[in-house]
Each structure stands twice: as structure tokens, then as C-alpha cells.
Amino acid sequence: MASDSTVANGRETAALNGEPVMKRPRESAQESLRVAKEPQNKVTVVLGAQWGDEGKGKVVDLLAMDADIVCRCQGGNNAGHTVVVDSVEYDFHLLPSGVLNKKALSFIGNGVVIHLPGLFEEAEKNLQKGKGLQGWEERLKISDRAHIVFNFHQAVDGIQEQQRQQQEGKNLGTTKKGIGPAYSSKAARNGLRVCDLVSDFKVFEEKFRVLAEHFLTMYPNLNIDIDSELNQLKEYAERLRPLVTDGVYFMHKALTGPSKKILVEGANAALLDIDFGTYPFVTSSNCTVGGVCTGLGVPPSYVGRVYGVVKAYTTRVGVGAFPTEQNNELGALLQSRGREFGVTTGRKRRCGWLDLILVRYAHMVNGFSAIALTKLDILDTLPEIKVGVAYKVDGEPLPSFPGSLSSLFLSAVEMLLPQQTTP
After folding, report:
1. Are 406 and 87 in contact (CB under 8 A)?
2. Mean pLDDT of all residues in the chain?
3. Same-domain pairing of 81 and 188
4. Could you tell me if 218 and 332 lie in one domain?
5. Helix (H) or strand (E) holding 293
6. How many helices (H) and strands (E) in the chain?
7. Residue tagged active-site, from 61, 68, 81, 153
8. Which three-class secondary structure state does DSSP give residue 145?
9. Which of 95, 169, 240, 355 is least enclosed, having the fewest CB within 10 Å?
10. Could you say which of 141, 153, 177, 186 is catalytic?
11. Does the pLDDT value for residue 3 go beyond 70?
């Protein structure tokens, strides 16, 4: 087979096996490229920019007032935030705090790990506090792809923390809610999902027993009642079934359908992210903006404004590096005035000056559209307010936030006095 080409009447022709063939006019690069339309619906994201407890719940509550859908994309009931409505204080750990908006749908995405007893107990406790949660089951959808936290995950979490204390003389400060072991099961591909529980229970039971035996092999002293938990899970399956939906399709319809305001409520915070946080003193999920895409099935182009919540001073629960910590009377004053006690654990939070190096780093990772600054009033009575502006090791400033904890522990903080009050 042979071909040749000539130009006739300004148009290129080709000869194929002796027969003339007219070539199509070449399209310009501009004509051939199809530019996708800007998505009509985008998700608005609220994320913590420090070590958690920045006041995300308050910001979410304000934005959720006119939202159509409020989503959780990662974490479990290790997170905690408080929302006050009509003078009633509601505590949320697993439920999106937007569930208080009776006109909005709440959605728990595939990136969340769910402890079912914890979910229903949380709802019951908040129902007893006020009317805000009435009808919550009609307003909640749960992704069929979300993984389940079992009681033995929580038991293992406690054992692992005890082992760390014995072997290294320190622990990670875990909430012992089973979050780490549940994500470990997910990564090991032997975890069980919501869709498994609401399908054939006999098949689920077989997989559950295999998973439980797996942990019993690793931890022979693990005290668990497999049959009792299976009976409990069978009851929960019936309550759960009406709430379960295909999460990917649910989000796709929400994003591509009629105009909707979609809010994503981040749990934990940037410096607790499994990849970008102060490892190993972190949580087991991605608390940064990437977790929104993987935890909900949202394409990156559908991520809209990203708000970083920053407390006017810095707090941290548990162990780990804390360069601007004030382990003194000032720290105690901040703790007292700011009511710095964990919602989930009740533990006292360590307190210190605002660390702008941390906030800058969180912005690098998340690309915040804006910052929501909280608790500035707690500093009202202080004669001076300081902020950390640089880390130095051996007198030399570090160019960015260090990945190595040893560098962070060795860092001296350069402080700036931005404002001094007058008597």
C-alpha cells in the first residue's frame, strides 16, 4: 500500500493506492482544545490550621446556617467540637455539626471510620440536651464505603498505647477510640465497610470473625466478646440501613445537579495530618485539603473556598513538640480563660503563643482562601502579646517548617511583639 500527497485548489489531497483522497482541513490548536466549564457547585471547606481545637465547630455552625449539605470527610469520633444553639451546648464527635440545621442534609463520607455504638450514643446524648437533633436520622446519609471501627479496635488502641509507654517511656496521646487500628485494617485490606454490614450478614460475620482472630493472634491478652459484639452489630445494621447511600453517586449528584451550598467540616487539623503533621504525634488520616477529595470522592476542580481556622494563641493536647509553649503562669492563665479542656478526652490542653511558622506551613499545604481567627478576646487582659515568627537551630533560621521532629525539638523560636497594651 502506497500513498502520496499533492495540493489542489488550495486543499491538500492524498493518493491512496492510486485513488485520490481529500484530507480534512487542519484544525487550529485553539479549536481542537475543549475547555471544561467551571463547575456550578463547589464545596466550601473548613480546616484547622494548628493542632486542633481552633474553633472549627463555631465557624462551621455559622456557615452551616444556610448550607444545603454538610459533610465529614475523615477521622472518627476522636475529634470533638462544641456548638451552642439557643443556649444549649451540643457536643459532636462523629456527626457533622451541621445536623442541627433541619433544612440541610448531613453526610459522612468514605474517608471517615465509624464506631456505630459511638454514633448512636452521641445522637442520644444530644437529643436529651435539646430539640436541635430531633429527626436527625432523616437528615443523615452515610457512605457505603466508610470503614467500621469495632470494639476490638478500641481495645487494641489501648494496648498499643500501653506498650509504647512501657517500651519508650512515652505515648502518642491517642484518644483510644480505635481510630489508628481501624485505619490500619483499612490499609491492610482486611477491614470491613458499612456496605458489608448492611448486605449479607452471614458473610459479614465470617469476615468479622477472621478480623477479630487476626488481632487476637497479635494480642493474646485482648479481652473481647466476639458473639456479643456480633449481636450488637446485627441490631445496628437495621438502624443503619436506611441511612446508607452510594457516597460517590450522592456527591456527584450534589455537585452536578441544581445549585447547592455544600460545606465540608474538617476534623483534627493540619499539624495532626498523617503525612504533613508532626509525625508520629499525629492522627491516622489526612486532615488537610487532599483528604476532602479522597474522603468524599470530590474531584479537585470542585473544591472552592478553603477556610483555615486559627486560634489567636496555640494549644496542643498530648505529647509532641510545641515550640511556643508557655509551661508557666501564662500558659495556666490561657488554659483557664480559654477553657482549654478536650471535648473528647477532657484532658487539659497545653497552651502557648501564636506560632506563625505553623500557620504559614499549614497555608502552604492547604492554600487557604482566608483565615478565620478565633479567641482573640482571651488575650484582652495580657500586658503584651507575642507571636512566633521563625525557628532557629544553632542560631541559624530554618527556611521552612521542619519534617524532622529532632529539628523541631532543638529549635529556638524568634518571637515578635506585635502589640503592647497601655495601662
Report:
1. no
2. 89
3. no
4. no
5. helix 290-296
6. 13, 21
7. 81
8. coil
9. 169
10. 186
11. no
Nearest alpha carbon to residue 44 among 80, 74, 62, 70 = 70
Encoded amino acid at 352, one letter: G
Task: Mark whether 361 and 226 lie in a shared domain.
Answer: no
Same domain, residue pair 342 and 201: no
| Dihedral Cα 120, 316, 82, 99, nearest 10 deg | -60
C-alpha 278/C-alpha 357 separation (Å) is: 13
Domain that holds residue 164: 147-241
115 noted as active-site residue: no
Binding residue numbers for IMP: 53-56, 78-81, 175, 189, 268, 283, 347
The predicted-structure confidence for 86-142, as pLDDT tens digits, reads as follows: 889 888 999 998 899 899 999 999 999 999 999 999 999 999 998 889 999 999 999
176 counts as catalytic: no
Helix (H) or strand (E) holding 393: strand 384-393
- Total-model pTM: 0.86
Where is pLDDT greater, at 385 or 24?
Answer: 385
The answer to whether 362 and 271 are in contact (CB under 8 A) is: yes
Q: If pLDDT is split at 50, 70 and 90, which confidence band does 410 have?
A: confident
Active site residue 81: yes
Closest C-alpha to 357, from 387, 382, 333, 385: 387
Tens digit of pLDDT for each residue in 173-221? 677 899 999 999 999 999 999 999 999 999 999 999 999 999 999 999 8
- pLDDT for 281-325, tens place per residue? 999 999 999 999 999 999 999 999 999 999 999 999 888 889 999
Question: In angstroms, rounded to a whole number, what is the distance separating the alpha carbons of residues 278 and 25?
Answer: 58
The DSSP call for residue 326 is -
Q: Tell me, what amino acid is at 328?
A: N
Write the secondary structure of 363-379 as one string of H (helix), E (strand) and C (coil).
HHHHCCCEEEEECHHHH
For CA atoms 107, 110, 114, 116, the dihedral sign is positive
**Which residues are part of a known binding site?**
52-58, 78-82, 175, 189, 268, 283, 343-349, 375-377
Catalytic residue among 53, 68, 144, 196: 53
